[in-house]
Amino acid sequence: MSVWRVWVLFVLLVLAGPALAAEAAALRFGILPFNSTLALMKTHQPLRQFLQARLGRPVEIFTAPDYQSFLREQLDGNYDLMITPPHFGLMAIDKGYVPLYHYKARMEPIMVVRKDDAAADAKGLRGRRIAIANRIAFASIAGLKWLGEKGMRPERDFVLQERPTHGAAIAAVAVGDADGAITTTTLLGQVPEDVRQRLRYFSSEIRLPHVLFMAHKRLGTAELQRIKDALRAFESAPEGQAFFRETSYLGFDELDAGELAAYKPYLATLRQLLEQSRPQ
Description:
- This protein is α/β, with parallel strands linked by helices.
- The protein contains 12 helices and 11 strands.
- The chain has 2 domains: about 170 residues, 3-Layer(aba) Sandwich (D-Maltodextrin-Binding Protein, domain 2); about 100 residues, Periplasmic binding protein-like II (D-Maltodextrin-Binding Protein, domain 2, 3-Layer(aba) Sandwich), CATH 3.40.190.10.
């Protein structure tokens, strides 16, 4: 190769350097697929844009086709920053992730029914169709445990329907394809108003810390603090206030070890379900 060609290649690499560095510095922001990809992107776009501007580096949103795939991605360390449920978060801690915040709103599993349904409580759905988002979703695990304490078992006492997302499970009730859906109060609050007006719910009376914001410790202590500061600044910014109002998440809160420990019984069920799903 001639000296001239080497020099041209060197100049091109120097000019491309900032762009390549910016691309390499992009934060991979994983979001649990609790809703359709389009809905997730739309809801979290203000947060992505705020973080990108505040941190001075690209932030790219990623999700997965289902909960199992999302869990595999996080356990492989493929997200730098992520929104994940606490029972997934407990597993992620062993893979190098650290909790930053959780939402102030409490995680409250509920049973959604149509307003004109005659059921007086969750037991009124015996022998009927109950939709869930995914068997390893926290709401599904907690909701099925709650029904089990009422003497109701899937397939024996009701027909269990698994839907792609919480939004799809709720919509199935609204259009009459299911008689009930296990979800959470915050997720019910995120469906369109015309759908929500046709529904009511029964509370499980389970209230635990909400989903976690976690980041991988490979980012370093200084960058983790910058992300925490940016998230806290988002909370008080106009776009952040609109985000928390529209999602019913209320804001961010610190998480202590005792709160996270409350999810350990659900982690045991999660591990059991994952083991049952392994190919024989």
